[in-house]
Specification:
elongated, 41% helix, mainly alpha, 49 residues, 2 strands, 2 helices, two-stranded antiparallel ribbon, single chain
């Protein structure tokens, strides 16, 4: 993600709102991390959390 992604979108007339439900999202990621489930990434290597 380019560092100026917000500016790029806004220059095209797209409103950007950040931090929406941030705390809830962090809680979901933390719970998933504790679950010892397989974590998949873009490189398709998969690893255990």
């Amino acid at each position: 993600m380019p560092p100026d992604w917000r500016d790029e979108l806004e220059s095209r007339g797209i409103a950007v709102t950040t931090g929406v439900r941030r705390d809830e999202a962090i809680a979901v990621f933390a719970e998933y991390g504790r679950s010892n489930s397989t974590v998949y990434n873009a490189r398709n290597t998969g690893s255990r959390a």
